[in-house]
Design brief:
single chain; 202 residues; alpha/beta; Spore Coat Polysaccharide Biosynthesis Protein SpsA, Chain A; 7 strands; 32% helix; globular
Length: 202
């Protein structure tokens, strides 16, 4: 079965006192990270793994779901180091979900899984109508050993650079116009924008 990893290794400085994973949507009792875990499980991902880095207690304090947990002790080396911790010892396909990613509905994630299994590709990800976005990102099990072998101090130890080196046939970009954009949930304004879009999608 395909796994999912939620990357929560950053310092989350711009989100204010409350970590972005702990915020709640209007009218919902569950917080953001619990919502992510629920959607991933509905889509059939197992296990779901949470990777922490800076100040992990801030994230774990608002997690009310059973997930696998891993901690990146080298969080200062950047997001690629956190990704590597999540990918360690994984053999099948993996869905990579930054903690501030707006997840599409479970049915769309199942479609992304079928896309990965139907073709011999290395990655699959959604894009909006302007060609932006890129998360959640599904990685082939064949690509994971390569990513884990890249030294953290190497100039190309960045996921975006690795994706840029792939051909279009290897790196599938699937159009998804459900949201006009894929904002990150860092600033107060970005959070308000995401809440409006999610409210209209209900």
């Amino acid at each position: 079965m395909d796994a999912a990893i939620i990357l929560a290794g950053g310092p989350s400085r711009r989100s204010g006192r409350q970590h972005k994973a702990c915020r709640r949507l209007p009218g919902e009792r569950r917080n953001w990270i619990d919502r992510q875990v629920d959607i991933l499980r509905q889509a059939g991902f197992a296990p779901v793994c949470l990777v922490t880095g800076y100040r992990p207690r801030r994230v774990l304090a608002c997690l009310h779901r059973r997930v696998h947990k891993r901690h990146n002790r080298k969080a200062r080396q950047g997001p690629f180091a956190t990704l590597r911790v999540g990918l360690y010892n994984r053999s099948g396909h993996v869905l990579v979900v930054p903690v501030d990613t707006i997840l599409p509905p479970a049915r769309w994630l199942r479609r992304l899984k079928r896309c990965m299994h139907a073709a011999d590709i290395r990655t699959a990800r959604p894009i909006d109508r302007w060609g932006g976005g890129g998360h959640p990102l599904m990685l082939s099990g064949k690509l994971i050993p390569h990513l884990c072998s890249i030294p953290l101090e190497a100039p190309d130890a960045r996921l975006d650079r690795q994706l840029g080196q792939m051909s279009e046939s290897e790196n599938i970009r699937s159009p998804w116009n459900h949201f006009a954009r894929y904002p990150r949930l860092n600033t107060h304004q970005e959070w308000l924008s995401a809440r409006r879009k999610l409210g209209r999608a209900r």
